[in-house]
Every structure is written in structure tokens, then in C-alpha cells.
Amino acid sequence: MATNLARTSARRLVPGAAVVAAAVLVLAACGSSGGKSVSGSAKQTIVFAEAGLGTEGQQTAKAIKAFETANPNITVKIDVLSSDSTTYLSQLEHSFTAGSSTPDVFESDVTYPAKFAQAGWVLPLNSLNATTSQFFPTEVAAGTFQGKIYAIPWFDNPEGLFYRTDLIKTPPTSPQQVVSDAQKAMKQDKNLKEGLAFEGDKYEGAITAFLTVDSAFGGKLDPQNLNTPGNTAALAWLQDAIYKEHIAPTAVTGWQEGQVQSEFSAGHAAFAINYPFVEAVPPSAAVKGHIGYIPFPAGPGGTPASALGGEMLAINAKSQHTAAAYKLIQYLTSPPVETARAEATGDPPSLPSAYTPALYAKAPYFKNVKVLNGFSQPRPVSPNYLQISSDLQVMLSSVFANTKPAAAAISAAAPTVKSDANATPGG
Amino acid sequence: MAADAPARGRKPLLRWKPSPSGSARPGSARAAADRRLGYLLVAPVVLLLLAITAYPLIYNLWNSFHFVNLGLGGLPHKFVGAQNYTKMFGSSLWRAALVRTLIFTVASIAFDTVVALGLALMLHRKFRGRGFLRAAILVPWAVPTVVSAMLWKTMFDPRAGFVDYFLGFFHSGWANLTWLNASVWRSWAVIFISDAWKNVPFVAIILLAGLQVIPTDIYEAAKIDGAGAVQSFRRLTLPLLKPALSVALIFRTLQALLVFDVIFIMTGGGPGNSTQTLSFLNYQTFINNLDFGYGGAISVMLVVLALVAAGIIVRVFRTEQT
Hints:
The complex is a heterodimer. By secondary structure, chain A is α/β, with parallel strands linked by helices. Helix content of chain A is 46%, strand content 15%. In chain A, helix 2 packs antiparallel against helix 12 and helix 15 runs antiparallel to helix 16. By secondary structure, chain B is mainly α. Chain B is built from 13 helices and no strands. Chain B has helices spanning 29-64, 83-90, 92-124, 130-136, 139-142, 145-155, 162-167, 184-212, 217-224, 229-257, 261-266, 278-288, 292-321. The model of chain B is unreliable at 1-9 (pLDDT under 50). The interface between A and B is large, with 39 and 34 residues.
């Protein structure tokens, strides 16, 4: 009886098992990809993933149309992913982990290439004889992992210190002067709501805001050695700006770059730590024509500071159109195309040669942007950067909320950051 | 049925006839055919359920005993035994998130249930506009959590929100309070308010349904026997409301244990890690770190926690009913 029951059960299970097996095969087939790479001169369609909306998206579409005209055998399908950086990263990762051969070429934040390279998701561009000497070297370093180039700089966003030239006649030359100028400006102009605005929300931008200040105090964002006097002094300066000097409001704990830009452009802040796009946004009448943009001034033992932001271009390791994809990268990062993009969108070129007199004539602030590019510091180039970033965000958030003194927060975070930075695959 | 009155000129789709007694004799060929037909009819749903619930659950359980980090695509998904679980139990982050989750669950359920009970009792009484109010209180529940969290975040914004502006009328020091990510307690307060605003109506509607099935004559009998309003509530309403209460508690407990979206939108787990719950930690492990092994272990523990909580509620209410 038991045998019969087993046989009956087995008979019943067989069709079910067959259905499951078929489903697994279908799923496996969906996930598989790869194969021969198509020659660059063959007729083909490539997929380009970007996060660009608004003028950035329009400018990319315009440049790609010109590329298609110059390369009639290549059609580029633009895949606009999320403009939210976390969602954008997830969307890319989903494609890569599924083994998809598309997107062939994609926009990448400066912090992604090392992670993508370690995972084997991006193509080393050395195989395509990529050259990078023409770009700003800091961003090139962000796209280089274990000696190989994985991403080409597209645009280079140095974060620096904006100030109101009508309220602060000479740019500050030290962090202490930023405080005193801010306090004076707040007394002078009753429309100001704060002396300094910066990104203090618990997100990636808080790290670049910290980095913008960090080397001015002699600090360095080195995961192996975070607990240094320079890093502590920089973080304490930001904390004091809120709770001791009262030049920044506690509201910064909820501000990202958009809110910081709004505060500055509306005439509510004397200083703001932010990216160059602030210059491209039409400001209020009080601010118009009164915008200065400098590296954060150095304190004792420090150097003028700026944080590297920006976007790069990389190729999917499973792409079957690597030659065409690289042609597109070369086109998008050529001097005239970068200059045109800077004029239209305010995205600072990654090529020093793209900062032309014509660009300065149209948007003089790019002179300052080029200066800041010379000072910009990268975030740690590590395949484990997202974990490091998460640790740093926790540290910064607790300091900006004043739940921990800067020194205590850094000494608490340092071992975790080091451990996450050194975590080895499978270890 | 088709077999009783087939369309003219067409064969019935199913050759099924009820037996004279209304059902086939057990063991007969017809009974076996009926069973087969039954299995066939439910098979698509069973397959679908297996694909979308059983498969992910089992796969997640498998992951939790393996090294699976999708960010390190080239590495084999080797068996690591209970290593992910050992790491989890030894993690101060996980333990702190567990404590926060449990406290939030208990506090929010207690608050939601008491307020919702009051709301349900009010809506149970007859008054003009009752129908409209009953429909209106469902609005917060119908709003997606992400949207309601964004709305509350904006309302508590020190510059753009109305809460500080309103509080400023009472005390000038309250006019510029930063609620989120600047203070642990204020951050939790806003999360709690947003969560309660959305979930109290849900519990209230379930309790209202429970109140409506209580016969009114027992209240009249109690009144004749001299019972006051408080006594009637304690001796009649509450005991008879227990089935509805247990349903509401199970739903709310599971929701509160898995709280994620309101925290993701409002604080991102900050200040520091002070509003990081288990689901948020799980999200970071899966999405940030792509660590499906460790994330799998956290998920499995969440499921166990949810099952234990649901089991306790069912048991407590069943025992008391007995």
C-alpha cells in the first residue's frame, strides 16, 4: 500500500516537476547572454543608459543624434533610468546580475567603477586602447581600478564654496574667516536665514560636503586611517557651524544639494557648499550677479579644498557592441561636444581643453570651475565604497544631529570603515 | 450548470453530472474523476502561489546558508553553514535594530488599537454625517505609505511645513524646530505620527465591523439588569470584539514588525542609526551590499519573528475565548 501510495505520489509529482523544470529553463534562457562582439563598422543598434532628465536629457539626445548622423551604421537607443542615484544604481545592478548584454554603454557615478570592475560587470577599456591623459587626472583615478581603466570621465563636478559677493567683498582665506564673514553678513542682511548652507541629510551628498571642507584642515578621507586630527577638525568645524557658531541651521540635517541651492539662490544664505549647477540656476534678484565660487579656504596645515563629483561613461562587459559603444564614448567626450553640453546644461567638462574662451564668454563661472577641478579630492576608490559610504553617512548624521561629538563619532566609525574597506570577496 | 442545460448543438465543456445522492461515493470512479477535476481547477492558482511565495521563501532560506553576494558575481555560492546567522546574532547593529523594531511595534500597536477603538465606538453611534465620516476615515489608509510619509515630512519641514508655524503661536522656541534627523526623539515622533495617521483608520474599520455584528438586545438586557455604560463596555463589548481585535492585531503587528517605507522616506535610518529597524537593515544588506546570504538570514529571522508574534496573538485570544 505504501509502495502504491509512493508510486501515485510520484506520478502526480512528475507533471508538476516538468512544469517547474520548464519554467527554470525559460528563466535561465532569459538570463543568458553573451557571444561574439560585432565589428564597429557593421550596422547595429546599441543601448545607452543614462539618468538625464530635463536639459541634460535633451542635450544627450541632441549629441546622440549628431553621433548617429556621423556614424550612419550605428543606431543608439537611449534608455532613461531613474534620476534618483540609488534607484539608478539598483537598475544597473539588476541588469548586470541578470547577465544582460544591455545597456551596452552607460552613465556611471564616479564612485561606481571600482565596484563594477570587481564584480566583472564592466569592460576594461585598455583593450580598446583608451587614452585618459587628456582628462582631469582626479576623475581618471576614480575610473581606474587595479591599474586598468574602466570608465571615461564625462563631466567633472567639483563641489566648492559659494558666497555672496555683495555681502562678502573679499573671499575668505581661512575657515575661521568663513565663520566671521557669515556672522557679519547675517547681521548686515536681515533677509538672510543662515550664514552657511550645506548638505547634512543622511545621504551621499553629506560625504561630499564633508570632503569639500576636509583637506582645508589637513584631513584625508582614507578608509585605512580615518581617525586623524585633520578629519576630526574638519568634522568639528561643520558641527560647530550648527551648534556653536550658529551660522548653519539644524535644518541642514534634512538638506540635499537641491535645498542648499534653493536657499542660496533665494538669497537666504551667505555661503553654500554645493556643486557648480548653482551657477546655472537663475537666482533671485538679490543674488543675481553676486555669486562667488571658490575652493574651501585652507586652515593651518591644510590646502584649499574641493570634492570630486561627476559622471563617467563605461561599457557593459557582456556587450556585443563594444567597438560601437566606445565610439559613442569617444564622441560624447570630445572637446566640442563637452563644450556644447557645458553651455546648454552647466555640466562642467571633464577635459581641460573644453574650457574655451567661447565657453567663458557665455558662462564666465566656468573659469572658477576649472580652478576648483585642480583641487578636487576623490572619495575612496574601492569596490566596497557603498559599505564605506553607509558607515560614513551614519557617522556624519550623528554629528550633524549633535548626538555625538565629532572626535567620538570618528573614533567609533574608523574601525568599521577600515573593516568594510578591507572586506575581501568571500571573506 | 452546463451539464444540466447545455446550449443547443454544443457539447458541455465538462462531462460532470451530480450523483443522485448529491455527491459521488468515496472510492468510486466518479469520485476519483471529481478529485482530478478539482486538482486541475486549482492547479494554476497553486502553481502561481508556489512561484511567487514558496519559491522565494525556500530560495531565501537556501541563500541564508550560503555565501551569496551578487556584487561579487564571479564567486561561487558556497555553503557556509550557520555563519550568516552567527554574524547576525553577534552584530550590535542587528540587535539594536531588533530592539527598536520591537519597541516600535508594541508602542504603535497599543496606540493604534486604543485610538482606533475610540474611533470605531464613535462611528458605531448614530449621528448625522456618519456615512460620510466612515468613508472619509478610510482616505489615509488608501494613500500609499510613500506618499503619506512624504506629505508628513513636508508638513514637519522647519521652513516649508505648517507644524512649526502652528507651534510658533504657542511658544516662540517651537517655531523653528527641526524634527527629522536632528533629534532622535523628534525623528521617532514624526515617524510614529505618520504611521498612526495611516494605520489607525484601518484598525478602526476592522473594529467597527466587529461592533456591527454584536446584537443590540444584549445591551438592552444588560441595561435592564442595571449595568452602566462602562460595565457594558467591559463585560460585553470587549469580549465580543475579541475576534475582530485579534484580526486587527495580527495585521498591525506584522505591518509594524516590517516597518520600512516611512523610515526610508523620512530619516534614512538617522540620525546615525537611531531609527534603523530590521527591515531597513535588511534593505541595506540586500540593496546596498547585494549580500543575499546575510540578507537572507535577516529575512528568515523576520519571518520567524512575524510567525511567533502572530502565533502568540492567536493563542492569547483563543485561550481567553475558551
